[in-house]
Amino acid sequence: MLSLLYQEGPSTKGIFRRSGSAKTFKELKEKLDSGTEVDLACESIFVTASLFKDFLRNIPGSILSSQLCDKWVSVLDQGNNEEKIKSIQRLIEQLPRANVVLLRYIFGVLHGIEMRSEENQMNAFNLAICIAPSLLWPPVSSTPDIEGEFIKKISSLVQFLIENCCRIFGNEITSLFGEI
Q1: Which residues form the Rho-GAP domain (predicted)?
Q2: Which of 96, 157, 94, 98 lies closest to 129 in space, CA to CA?
Q3: Do the Cβ atoms of 16 and 114 come closer than 8 Å?
Q4: Could you give the CA distance from residue 116 to residue 107 in angstroms, rounded to a whole number?
Q5: How far from 173 is each of 36, 112, 143, 156, 170, CA to CA, in Å?
Q6: Secondary structure of residue 16 in the 3-state scheme
Q7: CATH number of 1-174
Q8: Of 125, 126, 111, nearest to 14 (Cα)?
Q9: Whether the Cβ atoms of residue 4 and residue 41 lie closer than 8 Å to each other
Q10: pLDDT, tens digit, 9 for 90 and up, residues 103-115
Q11: Taking the complete model, does pTM exceed 0.85, yes or no?
Q12: Is the pLDDT of residue 92 over 90?
């Protein structure tokens, strides 16, 4: 999924914003969940993007770890960008290795999409609004007002992560997929 999103996302207007066919999404999800081989290259990139967000939402405790939720939310309240980046790197070090590897690929894809935002209309802000709720959620449910505030904070954090991903994850993030 990430490879396809890396290839097609930068040239796809509204990637992660538009949904694919709900029927196709449901059928593909059932096939993937049952272990059936699926060729996503033959499907709409919007369905693939929806499947990927669904996959992220189903990671127990979220990829950024709900246990670290308060720390993630408070990162942007810290001093200058350098201090924020160091705090983010310390939080990333507390995540399981598999989460860190996946995050690097996710932000490699998001960076590639953002670099062509004039073409796809998905700048860091738009990408963050679409993907942030799939990356982190609070450990306990709350009122709609509190949840709305939380989503705004997490979206700002994800926007910062996208805009600074090379400094956070290293410049090799731009070449994780090699020459596809």
Answers
A1: 1-169
A2: 157
A3: no
A4: 14
A5: 31, 10, 37, 21, 6
A6: coil
A7: 1.10.555.10
A8: 126
A9: yes
A10: 999 999 999 999 9
A11: yes
A12: yes
